[in-house]
Amino acid sequence: MTDVNFMGVAPNFAELVVSKYSLNIFQTDYSQRIFDECKNDGSEIYYFRWSNKIYAWPSRGKESSRPIGFEPVEVSLQNNPDVYTKVIQQSVINYFFSTGRRPHRQKYSSVYHFKIDNSKTRFNISKLSYIPYFCFSVGYFIRGDRNIVYISCWREFRRRFDVPEKEIQDEGIDTSSWDRKNGVIVGSSRNVKLYVSAVRGEQQKKVIEEKTSNKINEFDHIKKSFNKLLDSLTNIKVVDGAALVKLNHFTIPNSNFNDLFISKPVHYYYNNATTPGGYDQAVSNLKPYTYEFMSSKVFEIVAFIPSQHSGSCENFILKLKAKLGSIFHLTKINIRYINVGSNRDDHINEISGFGHKEFDLALFFLNYSDKSQPLMKSDYTRLKAKLLGKGIPSQNVLMENVRQCNDFALKNISLNIYSKLGGTPWIINKDDKSALELVIGIGSSIDENNDRTIGFASVFDYQGSYILGGCSPISNMSSYTEKLKEHITSILSEAIQIQGVSPQSTIRLIFHLFKDASKYYEIKAILKAVENFADYNIEYSLIHISYQHPFKLYKNEGRDIVPRGTYIEISEGWALLSMGGKQSAPLLIKLDPRSTYKDLYDLSKQVLYFSHLSHKSFQPSSKPVTTKYSGELAKRTSELMTVPHWDTDMLVQLKDRVWFI
After folding, report:
1. What range(s) does the Piwi domain occupy (predicted)?
2. Which residues contact 535 (CB under 8 A, 6 or more apart)?
3. Which three-class secondary structure state does DSSP give residue 417?
């Protein structure tokens, strides 16, 4: 494998071929008491619970006597893939332990990692370290009538402050407001930005991150790791006399996997006109989709002008207004300027005097330090909460962007403003189908107290195209099932009424989830909701769109970008979808087997299409709008709930506005 030149698309996973497809181990019926006793018995037996059984085998692959109370059992890759693969996984883990490494994993994760002890691949910016870790995962793919054991691997760099906090403070840096875990400062993005800025290490950081994210180096490390593992297969001890005999790392397509390509959707503008090329130019030339609706309106915008930057901000606003006119054809815009000092209470006092929905949008300016404030002290969150309480969405602009005033920033901010004012710049086509499709995205955010906030975002099938519908949050998991049932009922009722869907017609509900579906949450809500629509044939699909998984793709050994739209079905109900760009990790799309509509390719195509519905940037997003918007909605709602007396009911009045982007 050493001299193989990987042309085309290659993954970071390889097939592990085992000499035996069945293994003799031990089992007993599960009880928590027995399982606890087994885990604490101190023997070299590994215990694994699966379903209602406890399985046991020698942890180092050597023969051992049968544990008391257990009976012999044969497990096979075909009939017991989860148990069989767990045996192989533990054999690999034990091998790494025998070489002096210490693999471990986060709770509920399938990925193991250990630190790479090589000073040549470790980078430092004074007290900040970029530490390399080797990561791997062992699992199985279902490929038709046979299962395949795989191992995936990669290297990643984790940022750490591996010194006592006092050493950082001795550099003259105030760490009192830094992010912490269990009282210890962490290498969070916020802490890294604060530290790098304090030590003037921006250029050094740029150089390091170019090296650590280099795709050619990434793939070279994967190749070398598989070569070392291949040379060590005889040292990996498996139970029952089995052995690892081969490691197959191939480009795709191969005998196990094939790749397909999904083209981008067609964008429609005013009067359903369409044109190729950049979206900003298309909107300007053809007018935005909601041109007729928006052009007749007069918009009132209030701009808070910091007195110390008044000239720069006023110049920026004039250019922004020009962009709203030239790209989006908004010419009836009145802007009221309010001069404020550096004290954010000036903003709050002014907002207190506003009438409800007196303005269509508020514009305020922040310094980078404002965005880096701890959440509980965030002026940004206080201002947004105060304005939303008055029914006014807001757009913040960093002073760094004001000073640069580049065309890219102006275009994207004008796009954000147009969307927050209620406009739709473009919609996208959908394939002709006999069923009406309603898509619900469900995203979440976890705050520093581990409380979860949920957000919903809906996309409607409208006259042969896809268009974004309403977005709404709920505050916690305890009300999730009931709120989801209400949300499903509401959009079904609205769609049937607006589109005149006749009884006996097929309606397809598609859910884009932030997690695997649960019979206690999503399934329960769906079944309850559809009880009210017995006259219709309702199908549903649940797909988990995962961003955290052990799979990566490379083209020409990392020299080229994997084309956006590359689709690879890797297992039954699992597919990888490349979103292009510099990231080597594609989306992992997992179809829940309880779904009644199961066309994985069609569902994945829809995911790609929905990444073109985001109105946060003129560039297509790396995530579908369903999970992107619902996740951002949940995050912003979670932040707002830190403001005293804030009530999520205040957001009902803005459910048709993307106030959170």
Report:
1. 384-642
2. 503, 504
3. helix
The class (CATH top level) of 427-549+585-654 is alpha beta
* 375-412 burial code (b ≥16 CB/10 A, e <16): eeebbbbbbbbbbbbbbbbbbbbbbebbeeeeeebbbb
Are 35 and 47 a contacting pair, CB within 8 Å?
Answer: yes
pLDDT per position as a tens digit, 64-102: 778 889 999 999 999 999 999 999 999 999 999 999 999
Helix (H, G, I), strand (E, B) or coil at 487: helix
For residues 476 and 513, the answer to whether their CB atoms sit within 8 Å is no
Rounded Cα distance between 246 and 617, Å, is 46
Amino acid identity of 357? K
The pTM score is 0.90
508, 539 contact by CB (below 8 A): yes
Q: Which residues pair with 17 in a beta bridge?
A: 246
Task: Say how far apart CA 97 and CA 308 lie, in whole Å.
Answer: 60
The ranges of the chain annotated as CATH 3.40.50.2300 are: 290-420
Query: In the structure encoding, which two tokens stand for residue 409, read together?
Result: 């920033």
Domain spanning 290-420: which superfamily?
Response regulator (3.40.50.2300)
CA gap 396, 330 in Å, rounded: 20
pLDDT tier for residue 460 given thresholds of 50, 70 and 90: low
- Dihedral, 161, 166, 170, 173 alpha carbons, nearest 10: 60
Q: How far apart are CA 480 and CA 454, in angstroms?
A: 8
55-59-62-68 Cα dihedral, nearest 10 degrees:
-40
Mean per-residue pLDDT, 559-564:
95
Q: What is the Cα Rg of the chain in Å?
A: 28
The whole-number pLDDT of residue 376 equals 60
511 forms bridges with which residues in the sheet?
Answer: 440, 542
**What residue spans in the chain does CATH classification 3.30.420.10 cover?**
427-549+585-654
Taking Cα atoms as reference points, which of 385, 450, 317 lies closest to residue 636?
A: 385
Find tokens 């009067």 and name the residue: 271
- The confidence score (pLDDT) of residue 588 equals 97
Confidence (pLDDT) at 160: 94
On whether the CB atoms of residues 273 and 286 are closer than 8 A, the answer is yes
- Burial string for 291-316 (b: 16+ CB within 10 Å, else e) reads beebbeeebbbbbbbbeebeebbeeb
Q: What type of residue sits at position 582?
A: K
Q: Which tokens is 621 given? A: 């997003």
- Residue 85 contacts residue 149 (beta carbons within 8 Å): yes
Question: How many CB atoms sit inside 10 A of residue 146's CB?
Answer: 11
